[in-house]
């Protein structure tokens, strides 16, 4: 947990600089044009709070939570703005602000069910039905395929997990899954400001991974990827964390997976957690170029615009969240592509919620191309 | 009815901000000031239309309340800081493109669109708005006009006034006026009231829409850096190549120290400052743009002439590219943008005088002397050519300012005042791209003499109650307040 006071120098630096370059890429600021919701404004709000210029007001709470933590502001700055926003959320909760009601329910669900979706733990088994996947056991495997809460319990997303597992199998990767024993990575807790709950969860998680003898975690979800990767750096004792796109693109590159290229024009949306925050840009594109007539969106890689689903925005500010999704779809349509591909369960659900484009999961797309190649 | 209630009733609750935390954010711009000098307004309004602004000004007029309009809040001298509280009008919520007319190379836009948004909108037509300050991602059309700020490409295209064909404003009485000459490039008819808007700092009215002249995007641009023994030699060289008939797109004379500020990306990558010959005192960044053959020919011709001035081309492209990224493209490495990186302890602060072209070097030495006198760390001088096809330049005399220290901010302001006044002794002007704001207001008569009275009368005609951005250009008492 970062104390707001520790950030004072950086908040003053932002005030002293006031360049505003963070505003151009900020999806929330660009949609609403309220300066308190830009990073420059949020930093200034935090400074005002620290200086005692005002107390915590509804606008301070709004400034803290009406943000997707997508990190676009960080791309244009040398300050760690996303960390500032997270610290502000933590500060507010620590200073008596009640969690937003939508976020409070997420917290309760993670505590009671081990996922943020109010689904029983056993629901995590559903996606594996009929796949005959080995269950992780102490000392029996080194690679863990980490399905993540969202895809595991939401029916429309389960196919992406099945595709990932099938691709790993076809490539001859030995791995296991945790099924209903798989914990939540804690990403959601961390992003809505529940620092203490998150820190306990991450310790418990890595104790479990170590007890199972895991050396490498392959995640299906970019949120799990960045969260587990950072936790592993602190607690993992050498456990490697990769996203499924990294694992599989490597196999495509080596020729372990034969694929057939489609002539359909497709584009790819960089999930914030995988791309800008996780630094994984090329591997998904290698797959896209192998399987489609690939076309890039104008805002891509570090400049990719958030789909609007992240950091609790979708639950607490649904209208704005949907507006951001529509903007992303519009950008994809303008490329002339007919399919938008991504590899994040949040982005997929979000982008499918607005009209205009066929949205497909990267692993499902690759599996289909692999099937075609073998026919 | 109370002011806030009237505003809510006129434009809607969602467009009126009154929470102290929100107001605080709108109380400062880019100019050097301590956090204690943040001046929050009493209320912030977020208009969508000219009609909204008219309603807001009508209410302010009835109550006699100050109205300060702002854009990106990247002004370097506090022009849009609401000194006397009142209503802050955030024009950035008015950012619609009204019309792109590619055949006539014009654009009609709401004044809150950023200069980058304008270029994003017209780029598909092969056109661009060449008024390009470094703040173009944030600086709005209205703010560029009201501040009369600088442009990287001034030597070819001039500043914003050279691009401005017409503008709609809401005066201090709430009247909506269109000033200018529609889509015609110039006029001989009437008084040129539109020109009054450049550098008006919102003191006459709020600019709500503008018709801008666009230019075709050149096919090729070549940017170089040439080092000279003296700043005066760089001026003579530019004068010579203009005489030769070359069409320069950008020309910036940096003193040696100033270059180091602009090559952040280079330093970041190599862990050291770029190496420039020890004898070089001036570095001219120069660009040519157009069809490839023409650009190449002009560049070669310019470099031939440069040799006659004992100047040398900077061969290390990374130095040039680093400067150009900082000045124009803003293509910084992710997470390594220069501004916050360079402003951690002290921030950039500048005076913006103009001096006769033959006295640049003499003034440069005065700048160093005055900065030293006020115990300010020197960033350096940059002379930007900003008059089309002519040698005229604006000057940025920059120092680092510890914005956490009230004493240093005060010394910076004394430095700014002294250089501004000194420029008059040089037969120059106090301001070339920041306007006057409240900084120069107390001594504006030094520049304008008896004509200042006419300016005050013009102000009264547009704003009889003195509610439009009071304290800027003239002390508030001069406006009868």
Q: Termini distance of chain B?
A: 24 Å
What do we call the CATH topology of the largest domain in chain B?
Uridine Diphospho-n-acetylenolpyruvylglucosamine Reductase, domain 3
What is the element string of chain A, with H for helices and E for strands?
A: HHHHHHHEHHHHEHEHEHEHHEHEH
Sheet of most strands of chain A:
4 strands, parallel
Task: Walk me through what this model shows.
The complex is a heterodimer of chains A (375) and B (481). Chain A is an alpha/beta fold and 375 residues long. Chain A folds into three domains: 4-94, no CATH class; 101-248, Rossmann fold, CATH 3.40.50; 256-374, Rossmann fold. Chain A has helices at 8-17, 27-32, 39-50, 58-65, 72-75, 81-94, 101-113, 149-153, 155-170, 187-191, 195-212, 222-235, 244-254, 282-291, 313-316, 318-334, 345-352, 362-374, and strands at 143-146, 216-219, 240-243, 265-268, 293-294, 339-342, 358-361. In chain A, helix 1 (8-17) packs across helix 3, helix 3 (39-50) crosses helix 6 (81-94) and helix 14 packs parallel to helix 18 (362-374). Chain A starts with 7 loop residues before the first helix and ends with a helix. The model of chain A has no long low-confidence stretch (mean pLDDT 91). With 481 residues, chain B is α+β, with helices and mostly antiparallel strands. Chain B folds into three domains: 1-217 and 449-481, Uridine Diphospho-n-acetylenolpyruvylglucosamine Reductase, domain 3; 220-339, Alpha-Beta Plaits (2-Layer Sandwich); 343-438, GMP Synthetase, Chain A, domain 3. Chain B has 19 helices and 18 strands. Chain B has helices at 3-11, 20-25, 50-63, 115-122, 141-147, 154-157, 160-163, 193-196, 231-244, 256-262, 264-270, 292-308, 317-329, 338-342, 360-373, 406-425, 437-440, 444-448, 451-462; strands at 16-17, 43-45, 67-70, 87-90, 97-101, 106-110, 127-128, 164-171, 176-180, 205-213, 215-216, 220-228, 250-255, 282-290, 312-313, 347-351, 377-385, 393-401. In chain B, strands 15-12-14-13-17-18-16 form a seven-stranded antiparallel beta sheet, with helices on both faces. In chain B, strands 5-6-10-8-9 form a five-stranded antiparallel beta sheet. A four-stranded mixed beta sheet of chain B has the order 1-2-4-3. Chain B is globular and about 70 Å long. At the A-B interface, helix 1, helix 3 and helix 4 of A face helix 2 and helix 14 of B.
């Amino acid at each position: 947990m970062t104390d707001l006071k520790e950030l004072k120098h950086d908040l003053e630096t932002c005030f002293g600089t006031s360049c505003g370059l963070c505003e151009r890429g900020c999806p929330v600021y660009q949609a609403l044009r309220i300066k308190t919701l830009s990073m420059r404004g949020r930093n200034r709000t935090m400074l005002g709070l620290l200086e005692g210029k005002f107390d915590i007001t509804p606008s301070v709470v709004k400034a803290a939570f009406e943000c997707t933590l997508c990190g676009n502001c960080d791309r244009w700055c040398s300050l760690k703005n996303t960390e500032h926003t997270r610290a502000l959320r933590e500060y507010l909760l620590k200073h008596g602000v009640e969690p937003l009601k939508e976020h409070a329910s997420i917290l309760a669900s993670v505590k009671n069910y081990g996922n943020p979706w109010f689904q029983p733990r056993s629901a995590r088994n559903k996606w594996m039905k009929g796949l005959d996947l080995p269950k992780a056991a102490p000392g029996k495997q080194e690679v863990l395929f980490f399905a993540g809460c969202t895809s595991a319990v939401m029916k429309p997303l389960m196919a992406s997990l099945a595709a990932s597992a099938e691709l790993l199998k076809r490539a001859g990767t030995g791995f296991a899954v945790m099924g209903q024993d798989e914990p939540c990575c804690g990403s959601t807790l961390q992003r809505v400001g529940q620092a203490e709950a998150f820190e306990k969860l991450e310790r418990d998680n890595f104790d479990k991974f170590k007890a199972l003898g895991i050396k490498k975690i392959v995640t299906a979800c970019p949120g799990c990827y960045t969260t587990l990767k950072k936790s592993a750096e602190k607690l993992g004792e050498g456990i490697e964390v990769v996203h499924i796109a990294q694992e599989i693109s490597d196999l495509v590159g080596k020729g372990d997976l034969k694929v057939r290229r489609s002539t359909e024009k497709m584009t790819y949306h960089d999930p914030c957690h995988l791309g800008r925050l996780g630094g994984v840009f090329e591997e998904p594109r290698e797959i896209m170029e192998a399987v489609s007539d690939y076309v890039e969106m104008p805002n891509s890689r570090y400049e990719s615009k958030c789909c609007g689903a992240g950091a609790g925005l979708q639950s607490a500010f649904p209208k704005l969240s949907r507006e951001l999704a529509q903007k992303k779809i519009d950008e994809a349509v303008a490329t002339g592509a007919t399919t938008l591909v991504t590899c994040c369960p949040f982005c997929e659900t979000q982008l499918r919620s607005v009209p205009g484009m066929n949205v497909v999961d990267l692993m499902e797309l690759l599996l289909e191309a692999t099937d075609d190649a073998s026919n | 009815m109370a002011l806030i209630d009237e505003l809510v009733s006129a434009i809607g609750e969602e467009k009126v901000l009154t929470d102290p935390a929100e107001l605080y954010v709108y109380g400062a711009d880019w100019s050097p000031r301590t956090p204690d000098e943040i001046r929050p307004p009493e209320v912030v309004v977020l208009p969508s239309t000219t009609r909204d602004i008219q309603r807001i000004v009508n209410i302010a007029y009835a109550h006699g309340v100050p109205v300060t309009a702002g854009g990106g809040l990247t002004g370097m001298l506090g022009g849009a800081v609401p000194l006397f509280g009142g209503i802050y009008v955030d024009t950035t919520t008015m950012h619609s493109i009204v019309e792109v007319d590619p055949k006539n190379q014009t654009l009609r836009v709401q004044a809150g669109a950023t200069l980058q948004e304008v270029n994003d909108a017209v780029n598909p037509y092969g056109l661009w708005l060449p008024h390009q300050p470094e703040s173009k991602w944030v600086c709005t059309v209205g703010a560029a006009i009201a501040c009369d700020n600088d442009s990287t490409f001034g030597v070819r295209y001039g500043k914003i006034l050279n691009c401005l064909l017409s503008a709609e404003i809401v005066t201090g009485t709430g009247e909506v006026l269109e000033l200018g000459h529609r889509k015609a490039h110039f006029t001989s008819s009437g008084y040129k009231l539109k020109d009054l808007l450049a550098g008006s700092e919102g003191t006459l009215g709020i600019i709500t829409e503008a018709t801008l002249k666009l230019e075709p995007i050149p096919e090729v641009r070549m940017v170089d850096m040439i080092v000279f023994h003296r700043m005066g030699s760089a001026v003579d060289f530019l004068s010579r190549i203009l005489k030769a008939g070359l069409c320069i797109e950008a020309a910036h004379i940096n003193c040696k120290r100033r270059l180091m500020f602009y090559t952040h990306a280079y330093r970041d990558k190599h862990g050291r400052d770029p190496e420039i010959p020890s004898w070089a005192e001036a570095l001219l960044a120069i660009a040519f743009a157009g069809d490839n053959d023409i650009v190449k020919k002009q560049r070669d011709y310019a470099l031939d002439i440069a040799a006659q001035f004992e100047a040398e081309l900077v061969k290390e492209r990374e130095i040039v590219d680093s400067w150009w990224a900082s000045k124009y493209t803003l293509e910084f490495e992710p997470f390594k943008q220069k501004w916050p990186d360079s402003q951690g302890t002290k921030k950039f602060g500048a005076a913006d005088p103009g001096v006769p072209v033959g006295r640049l070097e003499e003034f440069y030495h005065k700048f160093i002397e005055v900065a030293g006198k006020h115990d300010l760390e020197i960033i350096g001088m940059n002379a930007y050519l900003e008059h089309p096809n002519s040698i005229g330049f604006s000057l940025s005399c920059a120092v680092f300012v510890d914005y956490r220290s009230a004493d240093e901010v005060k010394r910076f302001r004394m430095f700014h005042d002294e250089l501004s006044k000194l420029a008059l002794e040089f037969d120059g002007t106090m301001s070339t791209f920041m306007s006057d704001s409240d900084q120069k207001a107390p001594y504006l008569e030094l520049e304008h003499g008896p004509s200042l009275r006419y300016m005050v009368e013009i102000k009264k005609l547009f704003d009889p109650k003195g509610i439009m951005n009071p304290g800027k250009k003239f002390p508030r008492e001069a406006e009868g307040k």
